[in-house]
Predict the structure.
Amino acid sequence: EIAEVTGVQTCALPIWRGEATPYLALAKTLESIEATSGRLRTIEILSNYLRSVMVQTPSDLLPSIYMTLNRLAPAWEGIELGIGEGLLMKAIAASTGRSVAQIKADSGKLGDLGLVAEQSRGGQRTMFQPAHLTLAHVFSKLGEIAALTGHSSGTKKVEKIQALLVAARGPEARYLIRSLAGKLRIGLAEQSVLQALAQAVVQTPVGQAYPPPLHTVHKSAESDKFKEELAKESLKLKTSYCECPTYDIMIPALLEGGIAGVSLKCRLTPGIPLKPMLAHPTKGVQEVLTRFENCRFTCEWKYDGERAQIHLHEDGSVNIFSRNQEDNTTKFPDIIARLKKCLGGKVKSAVLDCEAVAWDREKKSIQPFQILSTRKRKDAVEEEIKVQVCVFAFDLLYLNGESLVTKSFEDRRGLLREHFTVVEGEFQFAQSMDGNTIEEIQEALEESIRDNCEGLMVKTLDVDATYEIARRSHNWLKLKKDYLEGVGDTLDLVVLGGYLGRGKRAGKYGGFLLACYEPDNEEYQSICKIGTGFTDEDLATHAAFFKDHVTDKPKAYFSFDPSHVPDHWFEPVQVWEVKC
Ligand code: ATP
């Protein structure tokens, strides 16, 4: 009957109209996504679940999206899950009557505490069955658990988790534990979730009578018509999301007015950080010229600091956001206090894209990133700040009530220079060079490095020069100084395991297996072994550190070549920057 009403065949559990969505419906959906390979298929499974929720209990759509992404709120609210394994093990033990030692042993074997929780529950009978978990209830409990801090918060967390676990059925315990640990590991990235949302409303438009006469607009998901419409609509949805990345606004707008409603309501707004434009690495000046053939471009100095998206509101208040949309406002009271001096007379509101760089006031020069990173992260007091920063502004995305993201970089840069004033050592424009020959670029690269920068950011001025992340998120090219020295880039790699050392290295590790993170599948893929470049002291430090992080088995989300299995597997707890 449900299938008939909603046209949804694959939602694993019926969701009844107007009734709270069972958490089991989501857990089973996640389970089948996890068991399915192929991005299109997993998107379809999720979109079918979302269609059911939209038609039957629309108020559960927002928590469904948050829980599929394993988030509780937009990044800038700073509310995150990530409960330590110790507490989770305690809660699993308490809810299943098993010992922590047993749980730990199983976790070593299975490599996934979620599975341990699910299997531990399987063997237990309860005197009476607690009420079934609903999605909304679990979501609100996750929020409560994340919010607990301070004295005895650990015990309170364990109690709350235990209450959820006791009521968990089937795969619910697995996803509960993984949610709490901060990683769902179903291999679904945010872009796929947005795609599934778009697919849901393309197939079952919002705003219909009940039961919806149009429950499956495109009978064949293979048809060109469907693919075309989906591509168009999902681009619109993703564009809105990039400008206004918060589901708190998007989901209500979507339920009310579909994707057109989202386009109207999710606009770039001071106070809500937009997704930043990123850069594509290049292997040298020649590659820049090849990629940007026939377009005008500029080479900007690539400052090595921290991205700062500065939002000026009409009432004069200011917010500063990080590259990942975290709220850094209280980290930079100095930037905020000095901003007024840099505003031209006509500026009422603005969003600036900048790099905040450590600055030596005496030498009037840029300092390395390492110095910047010693600044207090939160609630800094202006008078106590020791590391001074200079802001290098490189883009203007919003001015006096108008979004500039669809304008060309040349126009945005023109407006930036027109409406803001340089104050040396406090607020400057990113230095740039508009020349286009190999020699000019090479010279700019060398000069940028003499100025303590990382290299150049190369940006087109008029062709493909908008700030529309959903179309192209890596519209700029980066040219780093590493290429000058004839070596490659550095890689950020996670240590998966160690090979026991021999001879001089006996008792320590002689080598390590390293991996890179693959966000689409949410897994660590082994990439190389490393055994050189360590001093004896390094090796001793690593051996002492990893001793406490050895596991019996590789984590389920490690992907590696069986011929490279290390002697000891580690928890993924350290990232090394490796030069190659
Ligand atoms: P990596 O990928 O090397 O770890 P990253 O993730 O910070 O570095 P990159 O793609 O290397 O990002 O470079 C983009 C970053 O460079 C931006 O996020 C910004 O913080 C910084 N940046 C410095 N100068 C500029 C500039 N002139 N224009 C744009 N971004 C700049």
Summary: Residues 276, 278-279, 300-303, 307, 323, 355, 394, 430, 457, 478 surround adenosine-5'-triphosphate (CB under 6 Å). The longest helix spans residues 224-243. Confidence is low (pLDDT under 50) at residues 4-10. The chain has 19 helices and 19 strands.
